[in-house]
Design a protein that fits this description.
mainly alpha, 8 helices
Length: about 160
């Protein structure tokens, strides 16, 4: 089943075949689905590029080697995108660059001048409760993400993990 017009069954099958960890684990498929939903909700409020947000959700952890500390996984995800996905995703070269900036930097705890990159990072951070970590507004980048109602909405979705 397709998740969306761009996250298709074929793309999911390809990603699953290249994901080295447990598909249903801490950084696996269900996390990606929640990151997508978080990101699209935020993008609807702040105008971020929705295609980049969707692809980020399903690629940002694709090259994790561990569910624990894995500082190089974002850069490896960017390399994976450029090496294996350019003919499988519908992005312009500028959008691919945005996606790679988002995947490469998503664990640095900082913010970026670009709203799409910040939206990607916040979408991921809003799903921290799955690991027992409550998202803190001071560590989120967009005003929409810092809204207490949005934080609580995201927490409720993460807790079921």
């Amino acid at each position: 089943m397709d998740i969306s017009p761009i996250i298709t069954k074929d793309l999911l099958g390809f990603l699953k075949s290249h994901y080295p960890l447990h598909w249903d684990g801490l950084h696996g498929f269900q996390h990606w689905v929640r990151v997508r939903e978080n990101g699209l909700m935020l993008a609807s409020l702040n105008g971020a590029n929705q295609k980049v947000v969707e692809y980020f959700a399903f690629t940002h952890d694709i090259q994790r080697q561990s569910d624990g500390f894995d500082p190089g996984h974002g850069a490896r995800a960017c390399k994976f995108i450029r090496t294996h996905l350019l003919d499988r995703i519908d992005l312009t070269p500028d959008e691919v660059n945005l996606l790679c900036l988002a995947t490469s930097g998503h664990t640095n705890g900082k913010c970026h001048p670009d709203v799409t990159i910040n939206t990607c990072w916040d979408a991921d951070r809003l799903d921290l409760m799955r690991a027992g970590i409550r998202p803190h507004p001071d560590r989120l980048c967009t005003p929409q993400s810092r809204d207490p109602q949005i934080i609580e909405w995201a927490i409720q979705r993460s807790v079921g993990y």
